[in-house]
TrEMBL record:
The chain crosses the membrane at residues 9-29, 96-121, 133-157, 169-191, 212-234, 240-258, 270-298. Pfam families: BPD_transp_1. It comes from the Bacteria. The keyword Cell membrane applies. The keyword DNA damage does not apply. Keywords: Cell membrane, Membrane, Transmembrane, Transmembrane helix, Transport. One of its GO terms (biological process) is transmembrane transport. This is ABC transporter permease.
Length: 304
């Protein structure tokens, strides 16, 4: 198992290094941020001083070398917009996205596994048809449309929920609900399909013939063997949210890492952009590593 985890960690580390190099040079192609941070009537001397102070006058390769040197010392640079360490800014935003992802994915996983398993137990029944119908709609519905419709109905028309912020429990309902719908539809379909295949196998038919209870057949005998493809989809969806639910966070004014990324790109806050990419990439790599470990635990053949 240690060798298995080590190989995955090395591959993730190499990918992270390549990603940092690409993002560093691409971000510089967006232009000089001087005009965004100085007043219109700033003199040429003021502009030159700003560029010198932030190292924008140096060749790109020199800027990259300095960034790598600082990175090796644990220095991720300063935010131009907030004038404080970029990593502090990113971690503050990441905490909000992390809890948004955790709450959403816990609810999604429980609901999708239970409903998808029950739907697969009686294929073609009323419950199966309703579950399939609504899950397909949910999987196809775009987040931005759902977010706008939710605001119009629950905030504007009914005045029941706030449109933005994180101050109370009620502020979380709309973002979590909108983020819930798409992964719920996708995961439910995978659970249903996988469970249908497992429940038609010989050992399940034998268990039924012996009079084993339906709940035991579904959630003990069937679910473990049906979880391999489900884990992949759960991991992908969780990584997508951890990477920044950009649309949902922007529409609801949620102070997460997705909204921070958009704001930083627009304001050319390079240090924050790179810190966001690094934190997001690490979160995705850790999620993929956990998926690999879960695979290996469920199916020992994968380790070898």
């Amino acid at each position: 198992m240690k060798s298995f985890i080590g190989k995955r960690a090395i591959a993730s580390g190499v990918s992270l290094v390549v990603l940092i190099v690409i993002v560093f040079f691409l971000s510089r192609l967006t232009g000089d941020p001087t005009d965004l941070y100085l007043p219109i009537d700033a003199t040429t001397e003021m502009r030159q001083q700003f560029r010198e102070m932030n190292g924008f006058n140096d060749p790109l390769i020199m800027q990259f070398g300095r960034y790598v040197s600082d990175l090796a010392q644990g220095n991720f640079g300063q935010s131009l917009r907030q004038a404080r360490p970029a990593m502090d800014v990113v971690l503050e935003a990441f905490v909000w996205t992390f809890w948004l992802a955790v709450i959403t994915m816990v609810l999604v996983t429980i609901a999708a596994i239970v409903i998808g398993s029950l739907a697969a137990f009686r294929v073609g029944g009323v419950f199966d048809r309703l579950a399939t119908f609504f899950s397909l709609i949910g999987a196809a519905a775009p987040d931005f449309w759902l977010a706008i419709v939710a605001i119009v109905i629950f905030a504007v028309k009914l005045h029941a929920l706030p449109t933005s912020g994180t101050g109370t429990f009620w502020h979380w309902i709309l973002p979590v609900s909108v983020l819930f719908i798409r992964p719920f539809g996708l995961i439910l379909q995978v659970v249903r399909g996988s469970m249908i295949s497992v429940l038609s196998s010989a050992y399940v038919k034998t268990a039924r013939a012996k009079g084993v209870r339906s709940n035991s057949i579904i959630f003990i005998h069937g679910l473990r063997n049906a979880m391999l493809p489900v884990i992949t989809v759960i991991g992908d969806q969780a990584a997508a949210i951890l990477n920044g639910a950009v649309v949902v966070e922007t529409v609801f004014g949620f102070p997460g890492i997705g909204k921070l990324m958009i704001d930083s790109i627009l304001l050319r806050d390079f240090a924050v952009v790179l810190a966001v990419i690094m934190v997001s990439a690490l979160a995705i790599f850790i999620m993929n590593l956990l998926i690999d470990i879960a695979y290996a635990l469920l199916d020992p053949r994968i380790r070898y």
